[in-house]
């Protein structure tokens, strides 16, 4: 099957401080290996949508399937395992553990999954760092790296469990234009050459313009 993400009639309300229909009848599909930015004005619901798609928020109506697996209705434990195995996360703030080395940070999600030995995980993590041209920094504490380097470590960490899909929320929000370009090139390579699906919320129009297609939102709907 070629579909990485299928979203059907998604609706979400925030109930406090008053009822607010934040996502309205959202339906779309994303194919495997597509690179799709989600754009739209501040407050239109982009991050809320990404949060639902990444299975972190289950308070909605409608259906979400990832890689052919319906995730709607799964228990919190099942979702935690599903996320670890299938989804890589990249955020605006990288959330690296500052006192850990780059390598240790990349290894963490695989250690949590507990499927491989420490040696296997270390080898895999080194490969991911190499892929992002960060292997020379493997043994440096992450706090000693630049913002762009830290974001590349965060992308390596998102890749460690070989996810089918990467969900990113403003991954270049804190970066200068050179590093934004680097992250763009990495995402393009991962999607086009490695078949990983990339869904990313962004305000960066250069980033959006270079992608396969964009999902544009306005007032809780897809335009
Ligand atoms: N927990 C919440 N309770 C009530 N309203 C919320 C909550 N979280 C977000 N909202 C509202 O929902 C709307 C959509 O928020 P969201 O963060 O998804 O927008 P966004 O498009 O990602 O915006 P930005 O580009 O500024 O990050 C906004 O009007 C916001 O104020």
UniProtKB/TrEMBL annotation:
Domain named ABC transporter: residues: 5-223
GO cellular component: membrane protein complex
An annotated Gene Ontology molecular function: transmembrane transporter activity
Top-level taxonomic group: Bacteria
Keywords for this protein: ATP-binding, Nucleotide-binding, Translocase, Transport
Keyword Nucleotide-binding: yes
Recorded family membership: Belongs to the ABC transporter superfamily. Macrolide exporter (TC 3.A.1.122) family.
Name this polypeptide is given: ABC transporter ATP-binding protein
Organism: Mucilaginibacter ginsenosidivorans
């Amino acid at each position: 099957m070629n579909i990485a993400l299928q979203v059907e009639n998604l609706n979400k309300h925030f109930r406090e401080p008053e009822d607010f229909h934040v996502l309205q009848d959202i339906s779309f599909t994303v194919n495997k290996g597509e690179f799709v930015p989600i754009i739209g004005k501040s407050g239109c619901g982009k991050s809320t949508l990404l949060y639902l798609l990444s299975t972190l928020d289950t308070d909605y109506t409608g259906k979400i399937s990832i890689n052919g697996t319906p995730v709607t209705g799964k228990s919190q434990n099942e979702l935690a395992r599903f996320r670890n195995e299938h989804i890589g996360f990249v955020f605006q703030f990288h959330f690296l553990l500052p006192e850990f080395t780059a390598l240790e940070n990349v290894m963490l999600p695989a250690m949590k999954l507990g499927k491989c030995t420490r040696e296997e995980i270390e080898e895999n993590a080194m490969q991911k760092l190499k892929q992002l041209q960060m292997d020379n920094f493997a043994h440096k504490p992450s706090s000693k790296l630049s913002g762009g380097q830290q974001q590349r470590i965060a992308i390596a960490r998102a890749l460690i469990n070989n996810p089918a899909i990467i969900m990113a929320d403003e991954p270049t929000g804190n970066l200068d234009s050179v590093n934004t370009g680097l992250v763009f090139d990495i995402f393009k390579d991962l999607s086009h050459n490695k078949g990983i699906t990339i869904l990313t919320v962004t305000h960066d129009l250069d980033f959006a313009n270079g992608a396969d297609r964009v999902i544009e939102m306005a007032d809780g709907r897809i335009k």
